[in-house]
Amino acid sequence: MIYTCYEMLRDCRVNQPEGWRYFISQYVPVIRKLLAHYAQDDEQLLERVLVAIRRPESSMFETLEPAPERWFVAELRQKVLAELPDPTPEIELDLETAAAAFAPLTVVEKQAAWIEGMGYSPEETGAMLRMSGATVGKIREKAAELLRGKIDTWRRSLLRENGRRLGRAAVEARGADCLSPKIFLDVLDGRMTWSGREQMERHVSGCLHCIDHFSRMAEVIELMRGVRPLGEAEAAKYARLLGVEPERKKGWRRLIGA
Question: Which of these, 124, 64, 174, lies nearest to 27 by C-alpha position?
Fold first, then answer.
């Protein structure tokens, strides 16, 4: 039997050791990559995040229905970021101003600009959006000028410095017509028809909640590339940290009279 993310979510919800062992093995490497990008590659920080996810009052597994892996990783990303210190920018940028500034941009241009707020370079963003880093850089300069025209106090790093705040505000701005992760993944995986994509873009072009969600799903696809499960010894270390019962090894019983 193949054990999957579906079974893991089910088992973690009822505190089954098998679910937590799978989570540790498969997703500690993902958390490490997130921390290295959004904070620092620090073992104590990693352990603190894991303990927070493991707490009974954590909603990480209570609010998620069994879901495909990339949906789960997108939610895991949100949980990890929620455990990090909240940066306070010197100049604040609100979601309404960003939405007004970016209104003339296409959906993919809005993504290229938005992902700058997530801290990714033009080259990293180009890999997510399947375009060159040079093209991403040009889009970002265009977006920066649009933003500059909407505010009194501006500097080039404004979007990046406010990225976390804008991301939270975008999540909270979800509306009744906002789209599911499946639609974004269908577009990213090339499964969406042209008519379906046009219909999707009509909504997303005017919705920073969906631009943020779409961007996070593109981030997850790149985040998962090349991730390898932990080795047995390293996974056992985190299992001890979280109080997860180790897997019992099956051995041969000695036959009486043999």
Answer: 64
**Numbers of helices and strands, H then E, in the chain:** 14, 0
**Residue 89 DSSP one-character state:** -
**How many other C-beta atoms can be found within 10 angstroms of the C-beta atom of residue 253?**
6
C-alpha distances (whole Å) from 160 to each of 13, 77, 157, 166 are: 35, 18, 5, 10
Extract the tokens encoding 58.
């954590």
The three-class DSSP label of residue 208 is helix
Of 116, 113, 103, 114, give the one whose Cα is nearest residue 205. 103
pLDDT tens profile 10-53:
899 889 999 999 999 999 999 999 999 999 999 999 999 999 99
Question: Distance between CA 234 and CA 256 in Å, rounded?
Answer: 37
- pTM for this predicted structure: 0.89
Six token digits for residue 249: 């090894």
d(C-alpha 102, C-alpha 114), whole Å = 9
Start-to-end CA span in the chain (Å): 33
Among the listed residues 18, 26, 27, 25, the one whose alpha carbon sits nearest the alpha carbon of residue 80: 27
